[in-house]
Amino acid sequence: MRFPISAAFLFIHSIRHVHSLEGRAPSRIAITSHVLPLVAAPHPHPILPSSQHLHKRRNGIISILNVSNLDDDETVREDELADIQQDVLTLGGRVYMTNITLASQPYTVVIDTGSSDTWIASSTFQCVSRFSSAVLSQPACGFGALFDKDESKTYVKIPTHTFGVSYTDGEFLTGEMGTEVLGIGGAEDGGQGEGLEVRQTIGVVEQGWWMGDRISSGLMGLAYPTLASNVRDLNYTSVVFSLFEGGTVPPVFSLALSRPTKENPVAGGLLAIGGIPDIPHDGDFVSVPIRPIISNTYAFYSVPVDGFDITPPTPTPRHRAARQQPQTGLTNASNAGLNMIIDSGSSLLYIPDSTADYIASLFSPRAVFAPSSNTYLVPCSASAPRVGVIIGGKSFWMHEDDLMNRGPGAVGTGGIGICTLAVQRQGAGDAVLGDSWLKGVLAVFDVGANEMRFSGREG
Q1: Is 233 a catalytic residue?
Q2: Name one GO molecular function term (predicted).
């Protein structure tokens, strides 16, 4: 997606929206009735993992913000503002979906804390080849139920703007923009309480290439409004911020992702709006500030991380012979100044290379780095170290099945033969905490206070 030079002032309106929610942070985190069940599904065409997409988007946004600080005789190269891409499915593995309504009709959409737009595929969607302009059959792009805007009595087209988005794996979508009544959390969506409705600006995609799961019809972004398309001109926010603006819903949402099992391979977890779901957790929250992308401008849910708690495994008789020399290293790997992006659209964790290498070395047999895929691979039967992420002075531990992606639908082979390690090298990209870690916590996004709170769900 290309940003024109005029996008230098794109974020002013979104900053106002964030400021309007400040001071409305709840003194305590209440249990909410606005709870939506999530469904997990494997991405049908996983590609090589990378954290470069977030790094490129962050630097692109900073470049745009810096345009407003240029002197009159200074210029910006177009390539500095071009091809800022969004990510939902580019990391392979699982996607998490929930149900919403548009014009009272139900649709399943992917949720993504790393983007702001909400978009839906049109009933007239034209699927085209990613390599040419050849038209393919509509089912080739794998969407679920399609949105018929002509049948809606509440849809209003925005004729002055178009919608377009591209992704790092070659997927791209174009269409129109409009407003529609969006419902979330009601019984018709599978929710546990009274539903919420808001008139929301959305994209209606009409052409493109998409590697769909044949379940979801679009995407609902949960990030700060800064990342939304045409936010300056159209004066709108992402869905959760739209819901919070009315003042009746506390400006908080939370995620409790589940670990799919053989018995329930599509278990996804819960998304709660206005508080937390009524689920078991250790009851002791830690709070950390969300880091602005620049000055007071917020985009991603980026939080400070103290380091990593790493405990080597006790070798089993089967694997003792494979460990010729004792492994040495810090059991508490400090990473001063490290910020990590909370991203439900990412399956893996991307951490400093030296820490990832150390963790990989502790498996028995040890994990092996595959240059062809830029990932660590490990036998699914290996003995694993215990790994925790330290936030606010507290260690949040990863389950062994998540650390090795053993579960059904996980990145890699799902527990048979060789598994993809959930902890990978950050490289030149941003540090990311994906769903392999999120499944062990109750994550609270307190956008009213611009902070995140975490409570453990693992022992």
Answers
A1: no
A2: aspartic-type endopeptidase activity
